[in-house]
Amino acid sequence: MKSSPIPTPAEVDELSGAELDQALVELEAARRTLEATYVAVLDRADATERYRHDGHVSVRGWSTALTNASPVETRRRLQTMRALRDLPEARDALADASIGVDQVRAIAQLHASPRLRDLVVDGDAQLVEHAGKDFVTFSEVLHRWNQFGDPQGDENRHAQAHDRREAMVFERDGVVHVHAKCGAAQGAALMEMFQKQCDAEFLSDWEAANAEGVDCRDDTQGDPMSRLARTDAQRRMDALHRLIVRGAAAAPGAATPDPLVNIVITKAEYESELAAMMGGRPVRPATIENIDTERCDTSNGVTLSPRDAVIASMIGEVRRVVIDSAGRVTDLGRRRRFTGAARDAVLLDGRRCLWPGCGRDSQRNQIDHTHEYSRGGTTTPHNGGPMCGRHNRFKSQGYTAHRDADGTWHVHRPDGTELTQPAFAA
User: Fold this and answer.
1) Which of 109, 172, 277, 304 is the most exposed place for a label (fewest CB within 10 A)?
2) Which letter does DSSP use for residue 365 in this model?
């Protein structure tokens, strides 16, 4: 690296690969520390009423006048300022750069809800620990806290989305547009059917390319998917058209696939919701002790209202999914390939590619043996993890993956360094 910890723009072109890694990490750390100081300045100006010196009525006006920051950016910083007054763990973690600006802002947004504020304050340390995970996983945690920390508000949101469902197909300037929106329960089934049809369209293109001698697994010469007959966008539209045409041609009362959607809900949450429905009383919010273990969603990642899940279990065909105390789908036996129920079990526990920075969410992801089958690894959900085709092949170059006790995936380079840290050398 250069003598300065953070290179100037003019120095960037001279950096090696490993130095680029290090520079990016140091820039992010500096941004976090700077944001902590920025928020502290706003807090001090608010406490001392410095903003009144030039006739402003609030710290918002004072900040906007001096910085010309956008209203959205100013609102986010003030929201963070108010939250960090109540959250010393988050405040210190931002100041020492152990968690990011976006993570703290997401916590502050949760804190802004009066019905969730006490839970967020009590869970300050827990949220900081969660914030150290990848941002998509952290967002799922915050969504779960919002769902189970305010069950009545969550139920109202789901009901409102269902009540406002609509669909339109219209033409404008020679282009036909399709617009639709609905609640999570109905939408989960739609998403599952749509994704299955998209996968069928992809398989059709893949097989056609292979029949013509095109190797779509070779990514040494650019994106192999570009060699298929249709783009992803085109396949999605063709999948929607095929579903609608097929539905119009189906006999009245034709049965849907069984089960169409897998619903995963913790036993305690199911029983709590069922008791509330039978007794006509509201469900109590989750506490700081159990909120991280609650779950109610579908295999395609749609968060459901627990009430919808209970109703589905009464009137629909539901596949029971057994999970252990760590929230992972239990052992399904040893097989050479992850197919059928074994594949479903891994994907129920997480569909996104585990490679840091990828996170591709697709039923086409492959299930990789984290401990290689050839070295005694079992074909069980505990030894499987989803990877997109590219990263599953890339792993064979000496990269290793493992999952720790709290469910977080770690991928290591051949030299032993983790992908979330700078490499030792270029």
Assistant:
1) 172
2) P
